[in-house]
Specification:
Layout (H helix, E strand, L loop, with lengths): L1 E9 L9 E5 L2 E3 L2 E8 L6 E8 L7 H18 L6 H22 L7 E2 L1 E7 L2 E7 L3 E6 L2 E4 L6 H5 L12 E2 L7 E4 L9 E5 L1 H4 L4 H9 L5 H11 L6 E8 L22
Antiparallel strand pairs: 1-4, 1-14, 2-3, 2-5, 5-7, 6-11, 7-8, 8-12, 9-10, 9-13, 13-14
Helix pairs in contact: 1-2
C-alpha cells in the first residue's frame, strides 16, 4: 500500500500558543506542514498517522501532546509488542497517561496535563484506528465522509446536541487514559482518502463542507481545509492529515502562458 500524505499543523487565527501536534510515522509537526509519499509495510513493519490536541485550559497542553507522541515513537521504534499489538498499545498509552498525571501532581499543578490522541496505525499486516478524546479520524469513499471515531466528550457520549464538550476520556488530564483500538483491516481501500484532525477543524467547518472539499481531487487538500477553518474564524489550533491510498494527489495546475502575448520589441 502506498500513501500520498499532506499534513499541516497551525496555531489558528486566535490563539497565540499551539498545543496540537502531528506525528507522520514519527516525524513530529507543530506550526509546520509536510508532504510525503510512503510505502506502508505489508507484513513486517509499522507506520502511523496521529494527531494529539493538548487540552485547552490545562497547563502544559503543548507538553502533553508532544510527550505522548514522542513516547509512542519510542514504543513503535522498539518493536517490543509481545504477541498482542493492540493490548501492548493500550498498556503503553495507560503508562503515558499515568506519567502525565504524576508529573503534574509532583509539580503541584492545579490542572493535570492532558491531551487527545487519534489516527491510523498500520502494524504487521493490520490496520487500526485509535482514539482517546474528541479529535477525529475519518474515511472518505464514494463521495461519503464517515467518522470512524466517537467524540469522547459529554456531547458525543450522550448523543445529545445539548451536551457540552467536556472530555470524558483523554490521555493524562486526571483521566485513566483508555485507548479505543479498532481493527480496520480490509476496510481501507485504493482511492480512499483518510482524514485525521483536531477539533480546530471540525468545530469550524461542518462535516458536509469537509466532505465537499474532499470530493475535489486537489493537490493540497489539507491546506484547503485549513483555509476553510481559518476563514470561519480559526478559533482553535488546527491539525489536519489527509492521506490518499494508492492514488496520488493531482499535480498543481500549471499557469499556461498567454497564447497571444503582446509583441515585445526588445525580444
Amino acid at each position: 500500500m502506498k500513501l500520498y500524505i499532506q499534513a499541516v499543523c497551525s496555531v489558528g487565527k486566535v490563539r497565540t500558543n499551539n498545543e496540537d501536534m502531528i506525528s507522520v510515522g514519527g516525524v513530529l509537526l507543530r506550526d509546520d506542514s509536510l508532504e510525503i509519499t510512503v510505502d506502508v509495510p505489508e507484513k513486517d513493519g509499522l507506520f502511523y498517522l496521529l494527531v494529539s490536541d493538548g487540552m485547552g485550559g490545562h497547563e502544559m497542553g503543548e507538553f502533553a501532546s508532544e510527550y505522548t507522541l514522542s513516547q509512542l515513537k519510542e514504543f513503535f521504534d522498539s518493536g517490543d509488542f509481545g504477541t498482542d499489538f493492540p493490548d501492548a498499545l493500550r498498556e503503553k498509552v495507560k503508562v503515558i497517561s499515568d506519567n502525565l498525571n504524576a508529573m503534574a501532581a509532583a509539580r503541584g499543578m492545579e490542572r493535570p496535563w492532558g491531551c487527545t490522541l487519534t489516527g491510523y496505525i498500520w502494524a504487521y499486516g493490520k490496520v487500526y484506528v485509535v482514539n482517546a478524546g474528541d479529535s477525529r479520524t475519518y474515511r472518505y469513499r464514494d463521495d461519503i465522509l464517515r467518522q470512524l471515531t466517537v467524540d469522547e466528550n459529554e456531547r458525543g457520549m450522550t448523543h445529545s446536541g445539548e451536551g457540552s464538550k467536556l472530555l470524558l476520556n483523554c490521555i493524562g488530564g486526571g483521566s485513566y487514559g483508555r485507548l479505543v483500538v479498532q481493527d480496520m483491516s480490509g476496510k481501507v481501500l485504493k482511492g480512499d482518502k483518510l482524514l485525521v484532525c483536531s477539533d480546530g477543524l471540525t468545530d469550524m467547518v461542518e462535516e458536509w463542507q469537509i466532505e465537499e472539499e474532499l470530493s475535489f481531487d486537489r493537490s493540497h487538500p489539507a491546506d484547503d481545509l485549513l483555509e476553510d477553518a481559518e476563514y470561519k474564524g480559526g478559533a482553535d489550533n488546527i491539525s489536519i492529515i489527509v492521506a490518499k491510498v494508492d492514488e496520488p494527489f493531482p499535480p498543481e495546475e500549471e499557469d499556461f502562458p498567454d497564447e497571444n502575448p503582446a509583441w515585445d520589441p526588445y525580444v
